[in-house]
Specification:
Rossmann fold, six-stranded mixed sheet, disordered C terminus, alpha/beta, binds glutamine
Length: about 260
């Protein structure tokens, strides 16, 4: 059986606040289990075909970088990503990447960038930036767990009715700072505002992505992953979650 094919989109342009750590986490957690995984970095001008990918990571970036990649993304990658996800591939997107996978993202300057339309979400600029640590509660896969991360965005994202949010914000703004939702989930694809890196401190989410990617690679409906010794990761999660709770509400929301 071939290796899991992990694609990192625009690592040279869309990668902020430790986003690359998500890719490292996915690689390591596969390797620690002896699951072969190969990384392909895909940027401007590179072709992407749905048949060549099991797992996709798309990180964040500021409006400038989003404007630079948006044409290339729509023309050369968006369709393949939709097809891959519809066919069972897994995906994690953070902040700027999440916004570009929606139907549209409007920059602070009022420029509307059409998105790939994978997620039925629309993002528009808000009156201020949301900056700070975030604590989210999620019932993903029927189990209540928390996610910790860091957000820094001016865009506000609104989900179409019926689209599943990733979770509820306990501390922080999440999608828009209004409706208490954070991120979204569509099949094996996840959109989130959480940088951090997200996956090292929330290893179960990394395993959900790996599990879906491996099932896709093997052409099986479900696979199970061997558990890892996550005592250190769980301790990191608990201590960060406790710190965010203790600071609760004191999340900075800076003016422009
Ligand atoms: N430019 C976007 C915003 O401010 C995304 C920022 C990011 O990816 N951190 O909303």
């Amino acid at each position: 059986m071939g290796a899991i094919r992990l694609v990192h989109l625009y690592p040279d342009l869309m990668s902020v606040y430790g986003d690359r750590g998500n890719v490292l986490t996915l690689m390591r957690r596969a390797e620690w289990r002896g699951i072969p995984i190969e990384l392909r970095e895909v940027s401007l001008g590179d072709e992407l075909s749905a048949a060549d990918v099991d797992l996709i990571f798309f990180g964040g970036g500021q409006d400038r970088e989003q404007t630079v990649v948006s044409g290339d993304f729509l023309q050369q990658k968006g369709g393949a990503i939709r097809e891959a996800v519809e066919g069972g591939a897994a995906l994690l997107s953070v902040c700027g990447g999440y916004q570009l996978l929606g139907t549209s993202y409007t920059t602070v300057d009022g420029r509307e960038l059409p998105g790939a339309g994978l997620f039925e979400v629309r993002s528009v600029p808000g009156p201020r930036r949301h900056i700070g640590n975030v604590l989210v509660e999620t019932d993903l896969d029927g189990q209540t767990r928390t996610l910790v991360g860091f957000e820094n965005h001016s865009g506000r994202t609104y989900l179409a009715p019926g689209l599943q949010p990733l979770g509820r914000t306990i501390v922080g703004a999440g999608n828009n700072g209004e409706d208490g939702t954070e991120g979204c989930v569509y099949l094996g694809a996840i959109g989130s505002y959480l940088h951090g890196s997200l996956l090292p401190k929330n290893p179960w989410l990394a395993d959900r992505l790996l599990r879906d990617a491996l099932a896709h690679r093997r052409g099986e409906a479900r696979v199970s992953l061997e558990p890892l010794d996550d005592r250190l990761e769980d301790e990191a999660h608990r201590s960060v979650a406790a710190r965010i709770r203790a600071a609760g509400g004191r999340v900075k929301s800076g003016a422009w």
